[in-house]
Design a protein that fits this description.
Blueprint (H helix, E strand, L loop, with lengths): L4 H8 L8 H4 L8 H26 L22 H30 L2 H4 L1 H19 L3 H38 L4 H17 L4 H11 L1 H16 L3 H14 L4 H31 L3 H14 L4 H31 L3 H14 L4 H25 L7 H15 L6 H17 L3 E6 L5 E4 L3 E5 L2 E6 L2 E8 L6 E7 L8 E2 L7
Parallel strand pairs: 1-7
Antiparallel strand pairs: 1-4, 2-3, 2-5, 5-6
Length: 499
């Protein structure tokens, strides 16, 4: 820039000093008066010529002036000291304003003002040029006003630089998060670059610049993830989104897509486990069904569907067990295994007393089981029929058995065996009893036989006790059974052990 204020100050050091008028007028009166007047007039003419001709060439724009150069000697002019002082103050004020303008100008240029406030900045610089022109022609006050206006314009630019930084970062962030094409990517990069130009050390701007540089690759990964999800290939979508998040961990859309995909995978796994469980349940594979439903419960512990499914497994498993036991009980009843059938029904009712069908079916089974048990007991101990009470009971059982409609093979056999046992129980059998003619013999509840060598007695089939007594000898008891099916051996009753 031509004609700077520094040059002006530099040239000012060569300007002629203004004479001291008071000193000039106080020379000794002894000098010739005319000579003094001529000298004063000549001096004044020289000063006028210097002001009119020489001084404008030394007034130039002060863009890069130093404070150290402000101590200059004013030109000798026909002006009053107050006017000279006023002009000196104007020059100093102008220099101060210009120094502040330079500081702000340099700061704005370091903050890339040409990228966000170029027009306003150029207008401010143009104002400085106008002020320099005014200053060059000595219109100092007007120059100061013009400089001040330019300074205010630059201050206005300095006051909005932080806002411009925030706007650039905001626009870049929005473009990164909502990027859908190349234009968004370019915008994100440009705005991040602008933020870095305004504030190179700003951490957020640096992060945005890094994120913007990866945006094209990020959009490609997000597109791959969306396509995979549309094809229900959740594993591939998850891999793409994981790579996107690794590339830009702060990207909200990528993080949300990954989270949603993981949730979809979780829900898919949940549905698969539930489906596997119901398939197994339909095949009565309760163990596999329980395993599948429990896996689903691990994914969603409190999901009502899981609890319902587990309850259904328990119910159907229990019902199947009941059905199987009912079938088993019926088969046992058909086989006339009444005691075993009764035990099955009793176990079912012990587990669930509300089983009406089991209660109904158990009634006839209980009757047949009781009849079967009593007949079996008599047939296992036919000798007990010798007692009249037992015989009467046997007759009653035989009548009940014969009253059963459509008896099975087992009951028919029992009827024949019981009838034969009853008849045999009433046919006496000859029993031979031998002794030594020294022992007193008696058959409990039958007869006193006395002392004998040998005798015969008729006894119905059954169990009897023969007792022997002899003075000086220990008593003896002989228990024997009388059977109609096999011949009896002699019963020997002799007291032979001395006391």
């Amino acid at each position: 820039m031509a004609g700077t204020y520094a040059e002006d100050l530099h040239k000012g050091t060569r300007r002629p000093l203004r004479p001291n008028i008071q000193q000039m007028t106080n020379e000794p009166k002894s000098n010739n008066q005319n000579k003094a007047q001529k000298l004063v007039i000549a001096t004044l003419l020289i000063l006028v010529a210097a002001v009119v001709i020489v001084l404008p060439n030394y007034v130039s724009e002060p863009w890069v002036a130093d404070d150290s150069q402000t101590n200059f000697n004013p030109p000798v002019a026909a002006v009053s000291p107050s006017t000279a002082a006023e002009k000196t103050k104007y020059r100093q004020d102008a220099q101060s304003i210009l120094a502040e303008i330079i500081n702000i100008r340099d700061g704005l240029q370091n903050q890339a003002v040409e990228r966000w406030g170029d027009l306003e900045f150029r207008l401010a610089l143009q104002g400085v040029d106008e002020g320099d022109e005014q200053y060059r022609y000595g219109d100092y006050q007007k120059a100061i006003e013009t400089y001040q206006l330019s300074l205010d314009q630059m201050k206005d630019l300095g006051s909005v630089v932080q806002q411009k930084l925030l706007e650039a970062k905001k626009i870049s962030l929005i473009a990164i998060e909502s990027a859908a094409g190349d234009s968004d990517s370019e915008l994100a990069i440009n705005m991040a670059d602008l933020a870095m130009a305004i504030a190179p050390n700003d951490e957020e701007a640096q992060i945005l610049a890094d994120r913007a540089s990866n945006l094209d690759q990020l959009m490609t990964l997000l597109s791959q993830g969306r396509n995979s999800r549309e094809q229900n290939n959740l594993a591939s979508a998850k891999a793409a989104y994981e790579e996107a998040v690794a590339l830009d961990p702060q990207h909200l859309a990528a993080g949300a897509a990954l989270l949603a995909t993981k949730q979809s995978i979780t829900e898919q796994n949940f549905r698969n486990h539930m489906s596997d469980g119901f398939v197994a349940l339909n095949n009565f594979d309760f163990e596999q069904a329980l395993t599948a439903f429990k896996y689903a419960g691990v994914i969603h512990p409190n999901h009502p569907s899981v609890q319902q499914a587990l309850t259904q497994v328990a119910t159907e498993q229990s019902q199947l067990k009941v059905d199987q036991q009912m079938i088993q009980a019926r088969k046992l009843a058909q086989q006339e295994k009444w005691q075993q059938a009764l035990a099955v029904y009793q176990q079912l009712l012990l587990t669930d007393n509300s089983l009406t069908d089991a209660k109904v079916r158990m009634i006839p089974v209980s009757i047949r089981a009781a009849l079967d048990g009593q007949i079996t007991a008599l047939l296992d101990d036919p000798h007990s029929l010798a007692a009249s009470r037992i015989f009467s009971k046997g007759k009653s059982l035989l009548a009940d058995a014969k009253g059963i409609i459509n008896p099975g093979p087992r009951l028919r056999r029992q009827i024949l065996q019981l009838d034969k046992a009853l008849q045999s129980s009433q046919v006496p059998v000859s029993v031979v009893i031998q002794s030594d003619n020294l022992t007193q013999i008696a058959v409990y509840k039958v007869a006193e036989l006395g002392i004998l060598q040998q005798t015969s007695i008729l006894l119905k089939p059954g169990t009897y006790i023969a007792a022997g007594q002899r003075s000086g000898y220990r008593d003896i008891r002989v228990e024997f059974e009388v059977s109609a099916q096999s011949p009896m051996e002699s019963i020997v009753v002799i007291c032979s052990e001395k006391i």
